[in-house]
Amino acid sequence: MSGVTLYALTGAALVGTGFFGLIAARHLLRRVLAFNLIGSGLFVYLGAAGARGGEADPVPQALIITGIVVALSASALAVGLIVALARARGRAMLPEEDVGG
User: Membrane-crossing residues (predicted)?
Assistant: First the structure.
């Protein structure tokens, strides 16, 4: 197994774990962390895809750097909104859903 394949599989595992956390978690901060895990997995996978020819391609590297900056700012905005919601409601959890009628 080559290093590129290992990075691609690691990225896929991070995306899968983050997707599970995004669906399973009710606490909003855990959902933000799961969303960041998905983004990190995509960055790792994109970096592996950019290194296929033996020499690194600068376009995926630029996309990764830009994505990291956007993910950081979106995470800061999400945490700020969660803090404001927690102050207003007293908790940072999603409400219980009534499944039965």
Answer: 6-25, 32-51, 63-86
